[in-house]
Amino acid sequence: MLNFADSKLEQIMQEEQEDILEQITNSDYKYGFVTDIEADEAPMGLTEDTVKFISAKKNEPSWMLEYRLKAFRHWQTMETPEWANLTFPTINYQDIIYYSAPKQKVAPNSLDEIDPELRKTFEKLGISLDEQKRISGIAVDAVIDSVSVATTFREELSKVGVIFCSMSDAIQEHPDLIKKHLGSVVPATDNYFTALNAAVFSDGSFCYIPKGVRCPMELSTYFRINAANTGQFERTLIVAEEGSYVSYLEGCTAPMRDENQLHAAVVEIVAMEKAEVKYSTVQNWYPGDKEGKGGIYNFVTKRGICAGNHSKISWTQVETGSSITWKYPSVILKGDYSIGEFYSVAVTNNFQQADTGTKMVHLGKNTRSRIVSKGISAGKSQNSYRGLVSVAKNASDARNFSQCDSLLLGDKCGAHTFPYIEVKNNTAMVEHEATTSKIGEDQIFYCNQRGIDTETAVALIINGFAKEVMNQLPMEFAVEAQKLLAISLEGSVG
Amino acid sequence: MLKIENLQARIEEKEILKGINLEIKPGEVHAIMGPNGSGKSTLASVLAGREDYEVTGGSIDFLGKDLLELSPEDRAKEGLFLAFQYPVEIPGVSTTNFIKTAVNEKRKYQGLDPLDAAQFLRTMKEKMKLVQIDQSLLSRSLNEGFSGGEKKRNEIFQMAMLEPKLAILDETDSGLDIDALRIVANGVNELRSSNNSFLVVTHYQRLLDYIVPDFVHVLYNGRIVRSGTKELALELEEKGYDFIKAEVEKETV
Ligand SMILES: Nc1ncnc2c1ncn2[C@@H]1O[C@H](COP(=O)(O)OP(=O)(O)OP(=O)(O)O)[C@@H](O)[C@H]1O
Ligand SMILES: [Mg+2]
Known about the structure:
Chain A is of the alpha/beta class. In chain A, 25% of the residues lie in helices and 33% in strands. The model of chain A is unreliable at 1-6 and 12-27 (pLDDT under 50).
């Protein structure tokens, strides 16, 4: 049975088929341009002075600087994790610029005063900073390199009590909320990259949905890396108070460069009783070229806590970019009857490597989690699913269902599945299913015989494969994401 | 419509088609019969452009074009359709979406605008009636979990949607119950006109009671060894292939 959303989606997707074809034949990575804009940068390298420099640039209160310095000192005692199924050269942390902000001629007081060059950059990326041109109610926080340059619909949202602003503004304007929640889900000491992020994070978004409010529009952050030799370290915090709801989307792109660039982000979500947060990501960082040169190293820690009973956190991710992806959006199911979901499509092509998955930590009673992971590997890429389902001693009647499917294009790529299950309560029900399949030549030929060329056939087949996850995305983004899948796999068959 | 001359093809060094000659004129229905492994599906695949088969000799003219020069998708868009003996499954791709893509690819090739949702739905409803296929089947993933008969019916439905000039049906009748057989045959007969042609591969005379062919050919060991009218099919039904095999052996000695 087709429900309305499905058939509507299908219709939209169908209408986009033309575009997909065009884009497949056209371009490789279409976001690879560089904006020529003067930047205000920190000196290269990382010392306590760098941390102080960033904090000073942002005019931060002393408690924030203290937080950063503590994290930095801890980071210095740590080592890069090596357990993931990834190989890459050692990162020299002294070769990176940790702060780079586009110089705006005047500090913009309103959206109208934004540097036209920046406005153009985002327009080229399909992101409008013009509130008049809103696409079906999506508020955007636009982050370029180390700073947020604009956040749309702040005023309109504030009318219902929703706070949506850059992290820098939040630290100035809502210090109590930040002090209370920042690092409460992902402590600075959690891992190597969270410590680094806590020390040098420069911007990101803050969303606060008050009690009982259903956020009237989609919130989104668009991350753009522009400057060379910089790293991007953003920090996102979403707090959903009792009975509230928000759907949040994150997108990202970067120029094509021969050097690798580091992106180490932290996202934290807090969902109180009966609150629901839906977090979707379309990750399209520059993946490197066909020989594996360049691309973003994407080391991200995302975690949500279902703090209250009957709360729900749902992660949906479409990962097509980055030369390396290391990312495990997780949910701590603390409240009774809380629900955690993870829907993922990870595509790797050429020399890309992805080690991604989730952790579902069942602490409360009657908690539920659902994991649907679809890995698509092509070229010489390596695609790993790594997932943990743990059920604590007191978490009675916990349920988990995991489905991990891999699709291989060609025979030089790899798909791997690493499920970890730790159950300490015998009322738990944990189910794991995994499949691996290949796009068959007979499937391609069947499509060809119906007049569908090979590239379109592959797009059709992979979108079919990924459908269950794509259906979770807000409709406007599902179309974009579908195109992206096709483009990422361009030239990998035939 | 189609003119095959001295067609030879092999797969993995194995010679399968050893010089096929066949001409099909617009409006004609040709039936091909022959024992298992004689090369019927191979012929169909070569016509459709399957790359596994290497054409080692001969020529094929399709509507004035050198068929062997065309890619499989262009052959399809030029109006060649193959109803597969074993239709493949494509999980997650709804049958409707698949057919819509196919229809619009063909329209694009012909320089026509794609059908919008309403137009497409209208055409679909019409053709669904023709082959009596259920809506619920079409919203499911392409051929996934379809019964043998449902897959075959879906092939004929796609044929009806794509309106090919030449349709090759490879054992579309096998696995169909009596009613389904009649429905499929009716579907074919509805589409039959003086402008399009059919090449029907079958093992059973029964189908030819419903789809009455203009010519019947017997394929044996990679060659067409007998051609005749529909009476030839009746004779085969009665006597089996042995008498033909015997005759062929005699001739080649
Ligand atoms: N991939 C392959 N490798 C080797 N031999 C093959 C291959 N495909 C087909 N053949 C052989 O080619 C011959 C012809 O096969 P084909 O499928 O054309 O026969 P058919 O006349 O359609 O038979 P049936 O009536 O059983 O459908 C058979 O001997 C078959 O085993
Ligand atoms: Mg056959």
